[in-house]
Structure formats: structure tokens, C-alpha cells
Amino acid sequence: MGQSAFVAYADEFVAKKISERHDAPPALPAAHLSAQKAGSRGTFTADPSGHAAEESKDHFIVRNGIKCAGTHLIVDLYDAEALDDLDRMESAFVDAVQAAGATLLHIHMHHFTPNGGISGVAVLAESHISVHTWPERRYAAFDVFMCGDARPELAVEVLKERFRPGRIQVSELLRGTVSE
How confident is the model at residue 13 (pLDDT cuts 50, 70, 90)? Predict the structure, then answer.
């Protein structure tokens, strides 16, 4: 499969996911991205241990008729640019979180030497985005896992824009499937 077929696959994947979720709420404003205490969304009560406990919503979703904990996208970027640029990576994470309508809690990045690879994670109220890069190979491996109303497929567009891969491959896993 040629490079353009992989990019087309990613474009089709995102378009399909957006059309499947046409009734999804719009992305949250940038102000919503400020670091928040865990459990700051919804209605909560304190349990006997003193920890916040949500009363009614377990944040499971129904995707393609299947009830699950969330959607986990495995995103491989090949022939990508700027995979050693720590500032670009961090800003891409922030923008991907915003595009997906998720809640950012914390970002941690590590820059390796001498090759300049990056390993990083954005911890979200809805789960996480992580990355490992091999700039000498122009390859990056991203995981985008989100539950609730977040739209992880929209994060793929941000990654494509920021790192301009020659080809991209996206796999989708539905995590924690349950039958009811």
C-alpha cells in the first residue's frame, strides 16, 4: 500500500468517526483545559474514605452498538517531521486534548539524548495520550485512549497537522466491552 493510501486511510477513519458521532457535543473551550482536580466534573459525594465518588455516571460509552469503557486509538506516524521538538510535542498534546473535548490534568515529557527521542504522556480525566518517538527513523507511536464524551478521533487530525507524516496508520480498540 502506497504512502497516500495510508494517509487516505487516516482521513477516512477520522471522517467516519466524526459522522458516527454527529450527535456528539462540541469540543470544550480552551479555558476548560486548565489543570483540574480529579473528579471536578459531574455531581459528587464523599465516600467514607474521604475520596470523591461520582454518584451516577460510569462514563462508559456505546460505540458501534457496543458498550465499552472507551476508545483506544493506536496511531503510527511514518516519515514524520519534528519528532525531537519538545515544545511542538507538548503543544500538540494540548491541542489534541482540546480538539477531542477532553480534560487535561498533567503533561510529562522526557527528551532522550543523543538521538533526541521523546517519551511523554498527557494524563486526562478521560484517560491519556502517550507518545514514543524515534526521530532518527522518523517514526512515532501514539496512544490516544479516552472514555466518556471525548472524541479521540479528532486528536488524530492534530497529530497529522503537527508532524506531517508521509503515512499514518490508525487502529481502533474498544476497551472494557460489556454486554447488557
Answer: low
